[in-house]
Amino acid sequence: TPVANRLQQELEPLVGFFVNTLVLRADCQPDLRFDEFLAQVRGLHLDAQANQDVPFEYLVERLNPSRNTSHSPLFQIVFNMNTAAENDGVQSTSLQMEPLFGEGTSVKFDLSLDAVDGNDGLYFSFSYNRDLFDEATIERLGACLGTLLRGVVADAKQVLGRLPLLADDERMQLLQDFNATIVDWDDTPTLHQRFERQATLTPDGTAIVHADESLSYEALNRSANRLAHFLRAQGIGTNAVVGFCLPRGPDALVATLAVLKAGAAYLPLDPAYPDERLRYMVEDSEVACLLVHQATVLPSLAGTAQHALDSEALRTALADYPDDNPLPLVSQSARDIAYVIYTSGSTGHPKGAAIEHRSVANLAVQMIRRCAVEPHSRVLQFASQSFDAAVLDWTTALFSGAGLYLCGDAERVSPEQLQDYLLHHRITHALLPPSLLPLLDSTRDYAFVALLVGGEACDPQTARTWASRYRLFNAYGPTEAAVCATMTELKPDDRVTIGRPLDNVRVHVLDRLRQLVPLGAYGELYIGGIGVGRGYVNRPELTAERFVADPFVDDPAGRLYATGDIVRFLPDGRIEFIGRVDDQVKIRGLRIELGEIEQQLQHLPEVKAALITVREDAPGQRRLVAYVVSSAYAEQGIPDWRDRLRQRLPEHMIPSVLVTLTAFPMTPNGKVDRRSLPIPDLHGSGSIFIEPHGETQRALAEIWARLLGVEITKISAGANFFELGGHSLLSTRLVSAIRERFDVELSLRDVFGANQLADLAEQVDRQRVAQQLTSARQSAEVKESGWL
Q: What is the pLDDT of residues 428-443, one digit of tens each?
């Protein structure tokens, strides 16, 4: 906030600009009462006023924050409070003055708010940077401020987190307009009954294709029926969990349908998982029965209740069981649990999310309609059976009469083989992780009718590339909410969002006190409606923490799932994904969006895919590391990548090291396995000493040593002026020293833009050459005119 800075009485009559800037930082704890907060701010402001003659520039010098030409240091928002008298004409003994209000053409800060306490009310005026805000955003901000102040006047003892921000019309828009999703749908009670209905309609249609093996709908249904009758004979029924640890292939789908037909919930276990993890899931879920192939019985599962499912023994054991559809159990309903799938989390142990039949059915009906899945379609199952994306694959295929194509493990780990598989089998529908798409050749003639991406954030470049050729859908949803909760079809020129809620699903963006945040503001995404799962198996405390009562519906049983994802509503109702609540990246106090760096890396022609992580391989040394899959993979990496990134990103967002790979390591679920990324070579970090070479670099090193008070032997060609202790005041002295030593004129912007020694030397040499050319041209012109 600006301050007059006229503490001495002798300064009061003088005409002149004495104004200084006070930096105020309030502690806005949401559970703090407003009247208490007001007292805190009052004391804070009085303390600052008492030190108003400390120059702002001196404060910047002492604090030495990381510098960036895109914003001012220490603060970005200005608040100025004036009384009505201060805006009337100002009188003096010999002068009369009045304020002149011109059209503002530029602003110095991100946002400025001027308040005038007039005779008949309080008036506000915003000034804002149009590169950051648009007019509609500022209007919404002003409306929120008005609502907030009216709430304060009504009750100044409210805690900050409970003060109102939303006008009635905006609250109605967020709760009802953006969540108008209730529709009637085919409510066949259970998933297996939907499959049975389809098997009756297309008995001879191809249901599953895997390697050289295929099953028709009738054959798949009969095989599942025999196993279902077998399971019922073992006492398996409702509320039971049946696990199966089977290799990728038709047997896994037979087991899935059989467990559902028996009335139980299925738990898929990937044989590729570590033994310890498999044992934990089996014990934690208290499985009643475990189906395994004899050849893949794992030591960790020894002693559990197992029924061996060897392919030859299966035919013999089940030959005497009927192959007709088992009669539905009286107790079966759409509210029964269909499956349990384990997901990792911050608790340190995987946790089993239980999902009901109706949640999956609601999803499948919509995906079939939106993605135009038909009996002649060919749906790829890329995901592991223990990943919830596989549920979307098999339900959309088998509930529509389409063929489900299970690619092998080789195709799942090799982009080249996956590409050949997609082309050879003319796959029409596929759900793939977006990080995989840059590794595929988008110019090939695929048969895609609909291509879905999900499981991780999709970068804009990937979206543009594939949306320009195919219908590309971005699907979002946690394991705890039936695979997908929101979806959108991406267009080539669209901003990438996760879309709007699916039918019969509701979404809310809430703050830490679970209050609605204004339109456009960041908050945590909560999911409600039919898509929300039952909770975590045998984890009541964790279920109560993440599955909370829904305060926005009349149904006392209504619940919301707290996703932990930070999002915001856009004005048209679409949702933009921002990041994770528990994974905000900061380096040297600066918040960094890793996705932005990845996007800029992918603009480099040699880069096919990029991933940024923050590593702390040495205690206290956090640094950005870039991992890229390069189209020109070589030991020497990608030349000049730092210089090319600096044309697009500020210095603090440039990774310390870039590691080139032939491919990213992948998890069994098809996502990038970040834990398996190699530790970068410390000698490639850019932190090693590089001897300054050439006259200009050596002379600049001497200047830096003198200005910064450091030994010249510690100044590397890659050293950063500001990281060594430089600041804005020293920058002006640096410009003067360069002018004196090299007879060239640099601006402060030049110093900020080239703050590494080698870069600054290049800038000086370039300026010297330009000035020499100008002098030579001027001399030639003078001679030609006859003056010499």
A: 999 998 888 988 999 9
